[in-house]
Give the backbone structure.
Amino acid sequence: MKVLLMGFDPFGGESVNPAWEVVECVVEEGVKGLELAKKQIPTVFDKSIKQATVGMDEFQPDIVVALGQAGGQASINVERLAININDARIPDNEGNQPIDTPVVGGGPSAYFSTLPIKAVVEQVCAAGIPATVSNSAGTFVCNHLMYGILHYIAEKQLPIRAGFIHVPYLPEQVVHRGGPSMNLVDQTKALTIALETIAQNQVELWDVYDQNGQKTGRTVFRGQPLAQGDFHIVVDIWVVNSKGQYLIQRRADHLLLSPGMWATTGGSAIRGEDSKTSALRELKEELGIIADDMTHLGRLKRSDSFKDVWLVEQEIADTDICLQQEEVSSFAWATPEEIRELVKRGLFHDYGDEFFSMVFLTSEE
């Protein structure tokens, strides 16, 4: 597995940038099972993205991890997303100071990291090194670079996972000014653990379909924006018993999409799966249920997905349900009327009248 590490040069009057120091140390020491390459990035708007994409084209990595300095922070900050805005508090290394300009004109509002950010934080913390998930990479060149890398990957439909990590000052940088810092040994150890964790935690790949539902032969990582005219398959599975009650589940509170909301079982088909295989897997993963059979109720076309709706008519004891704690916090049985009431109260995901009619009318026939 090939990993490209990027770190910025010193900026803001500093003589050293811990991001680049860490990159050099990790590449010199190596990480077992990984082929590492490094590239220093200028702390300059636009030029930073150009240098990064040149490095990606040359090395053809499977993973890209860019690092930047976060002065005043005491922990390793693993960034969740980059936003499409430049708003520089200070000039970059060439005097540029864009204010409220887009990183990419007409680009998406944000891109999410395609690295397993929470797993990285968990493992770094387990080693006794402070780490946290950060929900803002700022609006300086760090955010600019992260957005640019992820946008390049999305536009080129490249099979590359990428993200950004901020590191604290080194102790020698705060001798006279005071404030938090972290020694180079711990920062190097943290990045090494992060790379090992990233390599061990594979992110889902989706098959890409055209507007007619035919495979294009391309794939994207889960969470990576699809190009216009591209689609992936999403499955929703409804389990109903002989009393006309549907099995519903409450989404875990930590999830980004509809946390704490009641919904049905569902998810995206991964590479190589057809719709039914995906539905069977999701039902088993989230609720521990092995379906005897299931009926395909229909397909709804959304902006970037085909939503396939499946019905399972089966008697299932509560004791046979095993929740996937990472995704599901609880379950219940509910009638169509009870589900519609939950929707009105904003407690159940509103799939839309077309969707609910397809499910409820079909099962009542």
About this structure: The two ends are 53 Å apart (CA to CA).
